[in-house]
Amino acid sequence: MATQTNPLSLDQMDEITTIQMCLSAVANLAIPSDDLTTVKREDLACLLSYLTDRLEKTINRWEGA
Questions:
Q1: CA 38 to CA 31: how far, in whole Å?
Q2: What average pLDDT score do residues 39-59 get?
Q3: Looking at the record's lineage, which domain of life comes first (predicted)?
Q4: HSE of 46 in the Cβ direction (CA atoms, 13 Å)?
Q5: Within a 10 A sphere around the Cβ of 25, how many other Cβ atoms?
């Protein structure tokens, strides 16, 4: 019997896209190159925004505990 999976919600798809962009930024920064212009600024901005958001949520959760 095949298992049925629920389709992803828009929020879940957005989260996956955000994480993929963050990973892309890290991968681009990890590649040894003298030319940092190869790093997509959009991906790097996404990474910084995502980490800031996660930090704020974690702090708020701890303060509410």
A1: 10
A2: 89
A3: Bacteria
A4: 18
A5: 21
Instruction: Please give the structure tokens belonging to residue 21.
Output: 């962009």
Amino acid, res. 46: C
Residue 8: the pLDDT is: 83
Question: For 35, phi and psi rounded to 5 degrees?
Answer: -100, 95
**Rounded distance between C-alpha atoms, residue 10 and residue 56, angstroms:** 22
Paired tokens of 52:
């800031």
Which amino acid, residue 34?
A: D
Give Cβ neighbours of residue 2 (< 8 Å, ≥ 6 apart).
Answer: none
Task: Assess contact for 43 and 24: CB atoms under 8 A.
Answer: yes
Q: What is the pTM of this model?
A: 0.67
Alpha-carbon dihedral 36, 38, 40, 43, rounded to 10 degrees: -70
